[in-house]
Amino acid sequence: MSINPILSVENATKYYGGVPAIEAVDFDLRPGEIHALVGENGAGKSTLCKALAGVIPLNSGNLTFEGAEFVLKSPRDAFDKGISMVHQETSLVPQLSVAQNMVLGRERLFNSGRALRNEARQLLRSLNFNVDPARPAGALSTAQRQMVEIARAVYNNARVVILDEPTAALTPEETDHLFFLMNDLRQKGVAMVFISHALEEALIHADRITVLRNGRKIITGDAGQFDRDRLIRHMIGQDISQKTPAKDRAAKPRKTNKPILRVEDVRMGNMVNNMSFSVYPGEVTGIAGLIGSGRSEVAKVIVGQIRRNFGGGHIYLNDREIRYRLPAQAIQDGIAYVTEDRKVDGFFETMSVAENISLGWLAKWAKGIFLPRRARLRAKVQALEKTLSIRGIGQDQSVQRLSGGNQQKVVIAKTLIQEPRLVIFDEPTRGVDVGAISEIRDIIRDIADQGAGVLVISSYLPEILDLSDRILVAKGGTIVAEFSADEASSEKILHAAIH
Ligand SMILES: Nc1ncnc2c1ncn2[C@@H]1O[C@H](COP(=O)(O)OP(=O)(O)OP(=O)(O)O)[C@@H](O)[C@H]1O
Ligand SMILES: [Mg+2]
Known about the structure:
- By secondary structure, the protein is α/β, with parallel strands linked by helices.
- The chain has two domains: 7-92 and 140-243, Rossmann fold (3-Layer(aba) Sandwich), CATH 3.40.50; 261-498, P-loop containing nucleotide triphosphate hydrolases (Rossmann fold).
- The protein has 18 helices and 20 strands.
- The protein has a six-stranded mixed sheet with strand order 6-7-8-3-9-10, with helices on both faces.
- Helix 13 (353-365) crosses helix 14 (374-387) and helix 13 runs parallel beside helix 15.
- The structure holds adenosine-5'-triphosphate and magnesium ion.
- Adenosine-5'-triphosphate binds next to helix 1 and helix 15.
């Protein structure tokens, strides 16, 4: 039985600088199906999706919508056909409010700001999204920005919704909710493509799965015909067990009882309420919690990105009280923060990978005078590029043009080159593929094994459980529970995070 696709592309090829990002890809999407797109970082998933949404032109290939060939010259053409895309790095206008962003391109329908906000509020509520329609999009968290993009697609009665890693920044509850919503859209006949590195999501929620590898389509099939191992084999062309054997993690005795970092009763606005915890050298301390539990905020207070309240508690680095006014001071003291939002504070988009990593070095050691030993620096940068297997196509590619997962690796490399004694990772493997996830987790453990203190904030419980020697649970801006690696379990952590 063949079902007529609503949207399809044949022989799609897209070159960047003479190198194909996707090549001769056939792909089709049926009405009312959820179609998952999986593959390693840089495999071409975002490129294919952007071509389907009119964001980039193809070099060759034929697009068909409801049986008729058509050419997409701009996202507007796609939008008019009812094709909506939720981007990996969101595309909202930061200065406009949530409501204005949602109706962008259709503003004429409203004659007052209030009517607009009310309609937006109703829709957001019906989707169970906790976002204030009057706030500027620039003030939202990553997860909230994504919610607004999804709401925008729903608002526009999209017939095809393309979601590029929609769950990467969401908590487990938000992810469940998103799939519930997608299921609802499916019943209304909406076709959806979604990209995810969480293969279980594809296996559980998709009707069909397509695997891309190195810009080529490897296979499309019913989700039921795959399992995790088969998917990975298609993605990397070999067994994962042959790739990187995961390191065994033995429970280790604490070498010292002196914490490297002590946070005492820290308060910041209404996000952080008397938060207290310690981080020990040679250990990975994980913080689990829901979005809004104050985890990222306390990290930002520690490194001086935001100020705590007047009289809002104490923070000690090796017994010395610290209070940074600028993030640069934290770096000088050997504290690094690897942020979850790579676009905003991660790197300089138009510079090359090597330049970006070098900047991390300069931030720590050059102090304004350009005196690095170039050869040594270059060697270090190259070693990091290799360890993290940062891959773009072509040489000296600007970071902007790297795939999402490779961008995250650049942010990590930039930090590692500073040889910090305390590293705070905020959602370190967001958007990173299965192979690279284990590489990055190994690197995080190595940092601790070499004696630095490591704090990991992650909304992904298996990641917290896999990495941490000790697990803290944050809720409502305070730490509500603490578990050793041995006693921790998903159930206990979730219970503490919610109740
Ligand atoms: N604007 C661009 N200029 C040059 N190269 C690009 C550009 N956009 C993407 N590429 C390259 O095309 C390849 C495919 O990138 P794409 O973003 O489609 O990967 P992806 O499968 O979405 O990866 P990820 O899982 O990391 O998001 C990568 O090697 C990337 O560096
Ligand atoms: Mg991508």
